[in-house]
Design brief:
Blueprint: E1 2-6, H1 10-21, E2 25-30, H2 36-45, E3 48-51, H3 56-59, E4 64-67, H4 76-83, E5 88-90, H5 91-96, E6 102-107, H6 112-125, E7 130-134, H7 140-144, E8 151-155, H8 158-161, E9 171-174, H9 189-197, E10 208-212, H10 216-221, E11 230-234, E12 246-250, E13 253-256, E14 268-271, H11 280-295, H12 300-308, E15 318-323, E16 326-330, H13 337-346, E17 351-355, H14 368-374, E18 375-381, H15 386-392, E19 399-402, H16 405-415, E20 421-424, H17 437-452
Parallel strand pairs: 1-2, 1-4, 2-3, 4-5, 6-8, 6-9, 7-8, 9-10, 10-11, 16-20, 17-18, 17-20, 18-19
Antiparallel strand pairs: 12-13, 13-14, 15-16
Helix pairs in contact: 1-2, 6-11, 6-12, 16-17
């Protein structure tokens, strides 16, 4: 078969290597420049490629095209393929043809990475033979070449679910659906929701669908009657209107029941008190992850032990230090109001809040009540802090500004008392003072480390 790969980053190069390993003729085309390490991989494998252009004559000669999730449907090259009725699939679809492993797949607007990493950690700590793939930065296709794992835990964005057709997860997890990336879906929330719900389309009686019963958009568009698989809804509350598979019986104890509605008394309790995860959204992520681990056969003791040793991805409510009894938390990934709301809501100690950056048309009104009751000081870290000051000056007793991370952390240190939390949860993009949110988070962690070093 003549297979063309569009896009030569992690997923594209992985798909190219898998296609070659399975005996196909492969050509890789990227409209932009290809990173040096990916170019080296292709050259070493002897795979033909081009960069900074799309040669349509070669692309339209394909029997099948595997496209990068970053390429939108409206791109001219995709439109040309559609006109010729040449099949276009995703890397995930392609990889799924060649693996015998059971795939646990996680999607949702928020919380995907944390939940994916937590499920992977729980299974790995229980000595299951498990791999990690998808949107967390590891190509599923490349790992399928060896296909040495019994399980894969796969984070899937809506873009990766687009152009899947026959791919079959064993367990599908849907955390939530909130408006995001709507420009890719004709500014239709329903179209975006249906893209997320593609994760369920090939589930069968051997698998399970774990979903958030508290999420309104999921409830609106999920047609549960048509799904031929085990349905395991979870909620932060013990609700009487839904046969729940997972819910909390107290702040630190959750209950799972893998046969909801059939065996209402069959719940198994799991203590989460030793988990380092912070906030209500992480209680939801933990519920979803524990349910997946239970379906995979893990016992309570295995789950509780592994929860205590989990380390989340950097820049997501990450504890980076403690100085004079105050904890410093890096939540640089919180580039929008909703993410910052989760952080403020999840911390119950007095907060010295570092926020600011490039405003993306933010409406801060949803944060005002939390800020009034939990934030003792706000340090605005941005080139232009006028909008932040207008919103929070009237309700936060101490507000000041700086344009240096080192200064922001030093001022926070001066303002924080023992028992307080210094929280970097910017609410904004990072591009006014930093390269990206990772750079912002690293500078925060570095500044905290400098203060911890004895003078």
């Amino acid at each position: 078969m003549n297979i063309v790969i569009l896009g030569a980053a992690e997923s594209g190069v992985g798909a190219a290597l898998l296609a070659q390993a399975k005996g196909h003729t492969v050509f890789v085309s990227d409209r932009g420049p290809i990173q040096a390490d990916y170019k080296q991989q292709l050259a070493t494998a002897g795979i033909e490629f081009e960069e900074s252009q799309h040669s349509l004559d070669k692309i339209l000669a394909a029997d099948e095209v595997v496209k990068s999730p970053g390429i939108p449907e409206k791109a001219p090259v995709i439109q040309a393929l559609r006109e010729k009725n040449i099949p276009v699939i995703s890397e995930i679809e392609f990889a799924g043809r060649y693996t015998r492993a059971k795939c646990i797949c996680i999607t949702g607007t928020n919380g995907k990475t944390t939940t994916t990493l937590l499920i992977y950690h729980l299974l790995k700590e229980a000595d299951l033979n498990v791999g990690l793939a998808g949107n967390v930065g590891f190509s599923l296709a490349e790992q399928v070449i060896e296909d040495k794992f019994d399980y894969f835990v796969v984070e899937l964005s809506s873009f990766q679910l687009d152009d899947t057709h026959d791919f079959q997860p064993w367990i599908a997890v849907l955390l939530n659906i909130t408006p995001d990336h709507l420009d890719r879906y004709g500014y239709s929330l329903e179209s975006y929701a249906q893209a997320k719900l593609r994760i369920t389309r090939n589930l069968d009686g051997n698998g399970a669908f774990i979903y958030n019963a508290d999420d309104e958009v999921t409830g609106k568009y999920f047609q549960s009657a048509f799904l031929q698989t085990r349905q395991l809804p979870f909620s932060l509350h013990h609700r009487r209107d839904v046969h729940l598979a997972g819910y909390y019986v107290s702040e630190d104890v959750l209950c799972t029941n893998l046969a909801p509605g059939i065996n209402e008394e069959g719940g198994v309790e799991v203590n989460t008190a030793n988990s380092p995860l912070i906030g209500q959204h992480n209680r939801q992520n933990t519920l979803a992850a524990v349910l997946a681990a239970r379906v995979a056969g893990l016992e309570t003791a295995q789950i509780e032990a592994a929860l205590a040793t989990f380390q989340n991805a950097d820049h997501r409510l990450q504890l980076v230090g403690e100085i004079n009894g105050a904890r410093y938390i890096n939540d640089s990934k919180a580039t929008n109001v909703e993410a910052a709301w989760y952080a403020l809501d999840g911390i119950h100690q007095p907060i010295v809040w570092i926020a600011g950056g490039t405003d993306k048309g933010n409406d801060y009104s949803s944060l005002l009540n939390l800020a009034e009751h939990r934030v003792k000081a706000l340090i605005c870290l941005g080139v232009d802090n006028a909008k932040l000051r207008t919103a929070f000056d009237p309700i936060v007793s101490h507000v000041e500004e700086t344009q240096s991370m080192a200064d922001a952390v030093a001022r926070a240190n001066a303002l924080a008392a023992p028992g307080d939390v210094v929280l970097l949860s910017p609410c904004c993009a990072s591009f006014d003072l930093f390269k990206n949110y990772e750079d912002r988070g690293r500078q925060f962690a570095s500044a905290v480390e400098q203060l911890q070093v004895p003078k």
